[in-house]
Amino acid sequence: MASPQDRHRDDKNRFARRPETAARDAEAAILRGQGFTYPAIAKRLGFADRGNAYHAVQRAIADVIPEPAESILFFELERLDAELERLNDLEEEVRAVLNRRHVTVSNGRVIINPETDEPMEDDGFVLQAVDRLLKIEEARRRNGERRAKYTGIEASIKVDATVREVTQQDLELQEMLREAKAKMRAEEQQILDGGDA
Prior knowledge:
- By secondary structure, the protein is mainly alpha-helical.
- The protein folds into 2 domains: 1-63 and 164-197, no CATH class; 73-157.
- It is built from 6 helices and 4 strands; from the N terminus they run ββααααββαα.
- A two-stranded antiparallel sheet has the order 1-2.
- Helix 1 (19-33) crosses helix 2 (38-45), helix 1 (19-33) packs across helix 3 and helix 2 packs across helix 3 (50-63).
């Protein structure tokens, strides 16, 4: 949430963010879209803590300032995709453990089942593997919830009939955002082309 010094009352006596705050929010979103952590954004932009940096990014997304919101959305969705890949790899490993035969060992000796004269199966590994599979499924569910939140799938359709006046400051902010996006693209292209040129 914006602090009192970051807000002012508009002509209808409503709280609105100052243009400087909106610009800083947009810059925070750009940094997040480049992969910066919230603590790193807080340090770089002078926020009190990671929470303030997080809220700045969320305000930029809520404002749907296209350039920073697009880059951060892309970054977050890429992160969620990578998480799903890791979860799939973990599931394969857990299933491999589940499919192996586990025998009970005590004091370095295999315990023999007196009824079958065969090594006694150790159900502990199976139960642990099942528990891990449940945790993986829970992580996938949370991943889907975050994806739905970022893409707006979970949000109900809302029509905003508010008429907003575009001020010179708004136009300057949009130009600043366009320049930042162009600079970011140029830096990305420079990296793709082999570094410093």
